[in-house]
Amino acid sequence: MGRFDDRVAVITGAARGIGFATAQRFAAEGAAVAILDLDEAQAADAAARIEGTAIGIGCNVSDAASVEAAVDRVVAELGGIHILVNNAGITRDNLLFKMTEEDWDLVMGVHLKGAFLMTKAAQKHFVAQKYGKIVNLSSVSALGNRGQANYSAAKMGVQGFTRTLGIELGPFGVNANAVAPGFIATDMTDATAARVGMDVEDFRAAAAERNPVRRVGFPDDIAAAAAFLASDEASYITGQTLYVDGGATL
């Protein structure tokens, strides 16, 4: 018997990386999963690689109509919604004096507005059924990171958003928590290595040296934390942010 039998989990930005690993973890533990991504073809391809019940849906999380349509489709095709993982994200890194208004708005739109819209759409179902689990993806960059004024602000905003959800939705049987990953080996961090002119392995090795466990994280590390926070075992935890970073922020 799986931890998420008879549960429907929605994961945004799940065609690859942390989102896909999270979808795999939930499916392995019995959930029917909906993979939401901007590109529906990529979402469908990812869903086809999941062992278990999975669908792929195209969704622009920063657009209210797109979000409502996606959540309605999840409920219609999978029979409900019980878990929401707000994972979708982008980066538009630059130093403040070089950062454009578009760079700022795009990052805020996906991370903060996206989490707001998805949660607002899902909570209607959660409150009605007196049950729901929300996991938001923050980052250690919430604590400040050179060249990421937009991303850092958005990720700290996610933490404030999560605390408020815990207060507002707790009385209705809904738990809301956040995971703040440290350095995770993904296509996104590999692209950062290329942008700064470093070999990927050297880039990862340097990151590993900056935390006590002396390794980088992997998508499965974050998926495991998300699975715990979305489980009934974590029913007395809400409004919290769990840093999963190998101790880098100690």
What would you note in describing this structure?
The protein has 250 residues and is α/β, with parallel strands linked by helices. The chain contains 8 helices and 7 strands. Helix 1 (17-28) packs across helix 8 (219-229). The longest helix has 29 residues, at 101-129. The model has no long low-confidence stretch (mean pLDDT 97).
Spatial shape: globular
Helix proportion: 40-55%
CATH topology of the largest domain: Rossmann fold
Q: Which structural class is indicated by helix and strand composition?
A: alpha/beta
Q: Rg to the nearest angstrom?
A: 17 Å
Described by strand count, sense and barrel closure, the largest sheet is: 7 strands, parallel
- Strands of the widest sheet, in order across it, are 3-2-1-4-5-6-7
CATH class of the largest domain: Alpha Beta
Mean pLDDT: 97
In total, the number of domains comes to 2
How many β strands by DSSP?
A: 7
Based on the model shown, name its key terms.
alpha/beta; Rossmann fold; seven-stranded parallel beta sheet; 8 helices; 7 strands
Spell out the blueprint of helices and strands:
Blueprint: E1 8-12, H1 17-28, E2 32-37, H2 40-48, E3 54-58, H3 64-78, E4 83-86, H4 101-129, E5 132-137, H5 149-169, E6 174-181, H6 187-195, H7 200-208, H8 219-229, E7 241-244
Parallel strand pairs: 1-2, 1-4, 2-3, 4-5, 5-6, 6-7
Short summary:
The chain contains eight helices and seven strands; from the N terminus they run E-H-E-H-E-H-E-H-E-H-E-H-H-H-E.
